[in-house]
Specification:
This protein has 350 residues and is an alpha+beta fold. The protein has 3 domains: 96 residues, Rossmann fold (3-Layer(aba) Sandwich); 67 residues, Dna Ligase, domain 1; 130 residues, 2-Layer Sandwich (D-amino Acid Aminotransferase, Chain A, domain 1), CATH 3.30.470. The chain contains 10 helices and 13 strands. The strands form 3 sheets. Strands 8, 9, 10, 11, 12 and 13 form a 6-stranded antiparallel β-sheet that branches. A hairpin with a 5-residue loop joins strand 12 and strand 13. Helix 1 crosses helix 10 and helix 2 runs parallel beside helix 3. The longest helix has 17 residues. It starts with a strand and ends in a 15-residue tail after the last helix. The relative contact order is 0.16.
Length: 350
């Protein structure tokens, strides 16, 4: 029996001013090149692949197709729980899928809820305050400098070079920009002064931790703030002129490496992540890691020059791109007790 795989995704497009959308509205979505590379990898694994864009017609297409499993990279388009839309549909249709479930995806997109759940589980993250309006009272516990972000966005959307603020006037200006542009509250987090890392994990239960990626903010243009801003991710660092902003494996002491790995695994488990995840963290004044964000739908750009962090970490661990994709699929198949349907196990790395 040949495994039938649906591939759900949202394509990058140009934001149109007349639609009233932010210029980075589609930043989280994937290019046709990425979608095609994933489909190609799955076909190499012996699968029959049907691509399904995650738009208003996705439910009917999935219901008619009824694939054995869906490889999901759909970011969703609208609403505070948009990343959970496709997994929720698949759950209702009783179709297995790769990656985390709708509850994990909905919670992880909301940075405040993520911090709260981590706190309950004893996992450190920065002190934060949510602002619904620019004139909300500032907590006495909030210390400058701070970073102002949209509450429920990913891919550095809304995090600009000037999102790092050092006084009340700048804070309120950035909160006003976020609330107006993204039509959602802003989260203001204390700025952590240490190094920043991102950690890829693959598996379930006790996931495998991939080599740690370290961000090198000294490679940013002169005068840039030391944060992984939208400019750093999408404007200054492009394949035609890469910045070499990341290093993998990170060059850090073994004890710090172990602390980062343990913190990542605890976070993965606390939020009930599945199959694959990427977790961003930064060191505080005492050089201990604190969680910034959890990304249960990490980017899977195949081009090494694009500095897509999970594929970069996988390459450092000895994965080919095809092995990375087939290993993610395998983790989901194993979780659903469907691994016997997969033909090309030689493409499974773990």
């Amino acid at each position: 029996m040949t495994l039938k795989v649906g591939l759900t995704y949202n394509l990058k497009r140009q934001s149109r001013v007349d639609e009233g959308l932010p210029e980075d509205f589609y930043a989280e979505c994937d290019s046709e090149e990425t979608v095609d590379a994933i489909a190609k990898a799955l076909r190499k694994g012996g699968c029959i692949v049907t691509k399904i864009e995650a738009d208003e017609e996705a439910y009917n297409k999935l219901r008619r197709l009824k694939p054995d499993i869906v490889f999901n990279i759909a970011e969703g388009l609208y609403g505070e729980s948009r990343e959970s839309h496709i997994p929720a549909i698949l759950e209702m249709l009783q179709i297995p899928h790769t990656g985390s479930g709708p509850l994990t995806l909905a919670i992880s997109l909301n940075k405040a809820l993520t911090h709260q759940i981590l706190g309950i589980n004893g996992i450190p993250s920065p002190f934060f305050q949510v602002f619904s309006r620019a004139d909300d009272r500032i907590s006495a516990r909030l210390r400058f400098p701070c970073v102002v972000k949209p509450l429920s966005e990913g891919s550095s959307k809304g995090v600009r070079n000037d999102s790092l603020v050092r006084d009340e006037q700048s804070l309120r200006k950035q909160v006003s920009r976020v609330v107006k542009t993204y039509n959602q509250p802003a989260i203001v987090e204390e700025f952590l002064p240490g190094k920043e890392f991102t950690v890829g994990l693959i598996g379930n239960g006790e996931p495998t931790v991939l080599p740690i990626v370290e961000f090198l903010f000294d490679k940013l243009p002169d005068g840039a703030n030391p944060i992984y801003s939208y400019e750093a991710k999408w404007i200054w660092d492009v394949p035609e002129k890469p910045l070499k902003i990341s290093r993998c494996p990170a060059e850090i002491p073994q004890n710090l490496k172990e602390e980062i790995k343990q913190t990542a695994v605890k976070t993965f488990q606390a939020l009930n992540c599945q199959d694959v995840c990427r977790i961003d963290m930064r060191l505080d004044e005492a050089n201990h890691p604190k969680i910034l964000e959890v990304n249960p739908l990490p980017g899977l750009i195949p081009d090494p020059d694009a500095h897509s962090c999970l594929p970069e970490a996988a390459r450092a661990a000895g994965f080919t791109y095809d092995q990375l994709i087939c290993t993610i699929l395998w983790q989901a198949l194993e979780r659903y007790d469907l691994e016997d349907l997969f033909e090309k196990r030689s493409l499974v790395k773990l």
